[in-house]
Automatic annotation (TrEMBL):
<dbReference type="GO" id="GO:0032263">
    <property type="term" value="P:GMP salvage"/>
</dbReference>
<dbReference type="GO" id="GO:0004422">
    <property type="term" value="F:hypoxanthine phosphoribosyltransferase activity"/>
</dbReference>
<dbReference type="GO" id="GO:0006166">
    <property type="term" value="P:purine ribonucleoside salvage"/>
</dbReference>
<keyword id="KW-0808">Transferase</keyword>
<protein>
    <recommendedName>
        <fullName>Hypoxanthine phosphoribosyltransferase</fullName>
        <ecNumber>2.4.2.8</ecNumber>
    </recommendedName>
</protein>
<dbReference type="GO" id="GO:0005829">
    <property type="term" value="C:cytosol"/>
</dbReference>
<keyword id="KW-0963">Cytoplasm</keyword>
<feature type="domain" description="Phosphoribosyltransferase">
    <location>
        <begin position="12"/>
        <end position="159"/>
    </location>
</feature>
<dbReference type="InterPro" id="IPR029057">
    <property type="entry name" value="PRTase-like"/>
</dbReference>
<dbReference type="GO" id="GO:0052657">
    <property type="term" value="F:guanine phosphoribosyltransferase activity"/>
</dbReference>
<keyword id="KW-0460">Magnesium</keyword>
<comment type="similarity">
    <text>Belongs to the purine/pyrimidine phosphoribosyltransferase family.</text>
</comment>
<comment type="pathway">
    <text>Purine metabolism; IMP biosynthesis via salvage pathway; IMP from hypoxanthine: step 1/1.</text>
</comment>
<dbReference type="GO" id="GO:0046100">
    <property type="term" value="P:hypoxanthine metabolic process"/>
</dbReference>
<keyword id="KW-0479">Metal-binding</keyword>
<keyword id="KW-0547">Nucleotide-binding</keyword>
<keyword id="KW-0660">Purine salvage</keyword>
Amino acid sequence: MDNDILKVLYSTDEIHAACSRLGRQIQKTYADKVPVVIGVLKGATFFMSDIVREIDTYMEIDFIDVSSYHGATQSSGQVDLITDISTDVAGRDVLIIEDIVDTGRTLKFLMTNLSERGAKSIKVCTLLDKPEGRQVEAKSDFIGFQVPNEFVVGYGLDYDEKYRNLPYIGVLKPEIYTNN
Ligand code: PRP
Ligand code: MN
Ligand code: MG
């Protein structure tokens, strides 16, 4: 897999440092609360697992799977709920954990959906933010790194469902996705 990577953007150590830094911020924010921390499948699973262990407060964790349609339906920007959380978020403080915010469509969908269910507060922590990709407004409260408009993979992020298990985040060689 390493052969398919043009350059490493964030090493395992840099990711761990970001998790510690964000964890400290989040811990302060929720010091006297018991948030519901929701990881967005599948990309955020590695980040979710690392960051919650950097936060020393009581919390509940859950996962949600949403799917956004690219290609033919890109203009519609439709996002569907695939697998729901099992937690009732009404009246709860919710923290969404994402690996990356790109167009912002996934996050916008989640914010709307969770607020309709009566969440008391909703905050967002994303490891990567790609502001140049934004199509709809979507703001995060805790951000690990701002990334350039490049195709990044690893540490949960996929290309064609692969590369998620790389222990670092890197830029994919263009020939990998242009030859397919
Ligand atoms: C990716 C990524 C974010 C979302 C961001 O998920 O993990 O959840 O896209 O893109 P957006 O800001 O343009 O909506 P994807 O839908 O590819 O599913 P995955 O996490 O299973 O890879
Ligand atoms: Mn995702
Ligand atoms: Mg994906």
